[in-house]
Amino acid sequence: KQEVTQIPAALSVPEGENLVLNCSFTDSAIYNLQWFRQDPGKGLTSLLLIQSSQREQTSGRLNASLDKSSGRSTLYIAASQPGDSATYLCAVQGSQGNLIFGKGTKLSVKP
Amino acid sequence: GAVVSQHPSWVICKSGTSVKIECRSLDFQATTMFWYRQFPKQSLMLMATSNEGSKATYEQGVEKDKFLINHASLTLSTLTVTSAHPEDSSFYICSARGTDTSSYEQYFGPGTRLTVT
Q1: Is B87 left (phi over 0), alpha (psi -120 to 50) or beta?
Q2: Is B90 in contact with B39 (CB distance < 8 Å)?
Q3: φ, ψ for residue B70 (rounded to 5)?
Q4: Is there a contact between B84 and B92 (Cβ–Cβ < 8 Å)?
Q5: How confident is the model over B66-87, as pLDDT tens digits?
Q6: A53 touches chain B (CB under 8 A)
Q7: Would the CB atoms of B110 and A32 count as touching at under 8 Å?
Q8: For chain A, how far is it from start to end, CA to CA, in angstroms?
Q9: Side-chain-facing half-sphere of A53: CA atoms under 13 Å
Q10: pLDDT, tens digit, for every residue of A71-110?
Q11: From start to end of A1-111, where are the E strands?
Q12: Potential cystine with B35: which of A34, A41, A64, B47 (Cβ 3.0-4.6 Å)?
């Protein structure tokens, strides 16, 4: 059974810092991996999707990497801003099509 | 990009009543829709997968007679919580997947917060 773990559970950094969020999964037979952002009481915003054949994806200040063989992904946020404060969710998609989510990392960027 | 809407965004109902939540894909045809549930400070848990025109597939532990899912068209799926109880209070989020088999990306709705009193 696929399990997704995110570390740390919470992170607080001063504005301007670069940071890394970690995601690990137990079954490497994944179709793709997605990173989402969730603001309090809101739905999900898709940030990056990495296909299983890809190693990384970039969008603006965000860079996500995928090492399928070791079951790891990282989300790198450069020059963090207070507006980046949110919960970041990692999810892997298997052959069935459903997404398995981690519990998220709650990020707080202090001005 | 692909847009998915949910209605209502929040609902309060009394214990024992039924509540229907709609999930619509606005600018694409969704052959498959997923329903997730999220309890406070927990992650999203898949409840069921529905394909247009066929019966939904429920995850283990999810009562199919309590959570009725209908996916009658390529743009609409509904989740009905029957005889709701306070423990059903949660954040319900749907997602839709189109016909782009190159990515199988899912697009999420904004969620519906259900409070059962």
Answers
A1: alpha
A2: yes
A3: -130, 130
A4: no
A5: 999 998 888 999 999 999 999 9
A6: no
A7: no
A8: 41
A9: 2
A10: 999 999 999 999 999 999 999 998 777 899 999 999 999 9
A11: 4-7, 10-14, 19-25, 32-38, 44-51, 56-59, 62-67, 72-77, 86-93, 99-101, 105-110
A12: B47
